[in-house]
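Lab notebook, bench 4. Still working through the backlog of constructs that have no structural model yet. Next entry is a single chain of 334 residues. Request: give me the structure tokens for it.
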Amino acid sequence: MVNVHGQRGTSDPDGQTLDRSHPDGRPLDGPDLGRVGAEAQAIRELLERQSLLYRSTVRPIAFEPAEPPLIRAFWEAVGWAPLFAAGRITNPHVASGITTVRQRLAEYGAEEHFTLTEADLPSRYRLVYADNDGIGFAVTDEHEGVADPAVLSVLWDDNEIVPYAPSYLRLSAEAVLSAAFGSWYSIWLTAPAERTLVPGGGAVERPFPLLVPGAHRLDPDRWLLRSTEHSGPTTAWLLAAPGFEHLVEWLHGQNLDGLRIARLPGDTLRRTGPLRVADGTPVRLSGTDEPDPDRCHRAGWIGGIAVIVEERGDRLTIAVNPRHRASLEALLDG
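Model written out:
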């Protein structure tokens, strides 16, 4: 059994957690408070520009005066909208979250192998996310009154409580920010942990360095977000853009060795064998110098149509903007 009261102290890859509590445990309401509020307001403004669903559904959250100041500053600026749930985050209202946790523990406890109870959780917590498949749920560890609590995961199948994320605020901000790109084309890329996908030279903008240090605005048409949820040998990155072609342009300029795309965007066409196109069709694909025989990706243009090609042995999956699907099919089958 993991001691859930001893899991803090893990640092985020881009810096420390926001927690700089006083020695007596009182949450700090000093230097970070203004920055959290300012960045949260900037995230809200981005959401309002990007998402009609956010604008039409966002509601204020009522907090008790005793709530941690940094958590209040973030959520009072952003508010709550149902679309945030897609980013694996739950309404931060404490009472409703506790009700959900107790229901889940009762359901899990019906299985003989699951012996955890609410007494095994921190004495003060809030629900972060509950998996609808019944695999588990995540809660904050607020028993010491820290400014930015760590997040713990309760696993049904393992009957165990384990560390999930070092910073609740950063996890929440990442989920909220990702909702801003819900109407855009996007892909999740998995890369070796030691590799960064951010161009060098310091020219890339980091709009939210405190709350979402892994968010980079590559240019007006592309955002790149490094997920804080992944650890170990790989890191996950979200690439988002308003058009399918914007994704392809960026991928075409990358060495895709060692990268994995979790799910191809747009429409997909499946073919067997080497790529075949109509005579005279120009093909400009790039991606990898050392193709993985099990799975590799290429990106570029076939007859001027932007595509992402996934190769798995002799099986090809070709992603394309839905508007150009018929034109691409004619080139592939011509």
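Notes after review: The chain has two domains: 4-171, 245-334. Confidence is low (pLDDT under 50) at residues 1-30. Flag for follow-up if needed.
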